[in-house]
Write a structure and sequence with these properties.
single chain, alpha/beta, nine-stranded mixed sheet, binds uridine-5'-diphosphate
């Protein structure tokens, strides 16, 4: 099946590169140029970015989960504003949509607005997660991919695919070329959180997992020269 519409999920950490917080601008520029090539090939692209390069579930005895998650969701908006601006700098048109009001910085998400922009070749950033605490940007990516009826989710990570165990811990770790989403869930493989994985299973949303540090990873994945893990439903 030819891929016409995708949801690209970028992890915050992968965008930070070796800096581990903030951004590595060269990495973001590289992503922007690859996305530009994909848009020129008439592929419609929605983007969800994590927030882990700024903030992740930092609860403490003094900070509760709901407030920590609000800060996390705001971190994803900072990421979307930054990345969309870099995308614009290479000639792409973008729109940042959020599920709650952020004054004049973003526009409110609606499926009609998202579809309209996608059809006009704009890259649509779905920022602010789902707008609710106790969820993740994985869940937001699953939800928006299902809503916009994407052909697949491209999951760009700081690891090059799905392994049977953590390759940083075990030399024997084996990468899967292909695996079913059911197996991912049953084996509790760390691809995305369980809520997101189950949503994708129930709604038959496949995924292509690859490393953001692979040269031309996004373009390779879209053109069939795929080196990551194909998660089937
Ligand atoms: N978050 C949330 N609801 C959502 C999406 C995100 O509360 O719908 C918060 C949550 O605190 C999470 C943080 O935003 O820890 C950053 O998102 P995530 O950890 O998914 O980013 P990633 O790990 O992919 O960089």
């Amino acid at each position: 099946m030819a891929i016409k519409r995708i949801l690209l999920k970028l992890s915050g950490e992968a965008l930070a590169g070796n800096n581990s917080t903030g951004f590595d601008e060269d990495i973001v520029l590289d992503v922007a140029n690859q996305v530009k090539q994909a848009i020129e090939q008439d592929i419609q692209i929605g983007v969800v970015i994590g927030g882990g390069n700024f903030w992740r579930g930092r609860t403490s005895n003094n900070i509760g989960r709901c407030k920590a998650d609000q800060i996390g969701m705001l971190a994803t908006i900072m990421n979307a504003i930054y990345v969309s601006e870099i995308f614009e700098s290479v000639g792409l048109e973008t729109e940042v949509l959020t599920p709650f009001e952020v004054g004049r910085f973003t526009k409110m998400y609606s499926i009609d607005r998202a579809n309209k922009h996608l059809k006009h070749k704009k890259v649509v950033f779905f920022a602010g997660g789902t707008g609710h605490p106790y969820f993740s940007t994985d869940t937001a990516a699953a939800l928006r991919a299902i809503e916009i009826n994407a052909d697949t989710i491209l999951l760009a990570k700081n690891i090059d695919g799905v392994y049977d165990c953590d390759p940083n811990e075990y030399d024997t770790a084996k990468k899967y070329d292909e695996i079913s989403l059911k197996e991912v869930i049953d084996k509790n493989l760390k691809v995305m959180d369980l809520t997101a994985a189950i949503m994708c299973l129930e709604n038959k949303m496949p995924m292509l997992v690859f490393g953001l540090n692979e040269k031309n990873g996004i373009i390779n994945t879209l053109s069939g020269d795929f080196k990551g893990t194909n998660i089937k439903v």
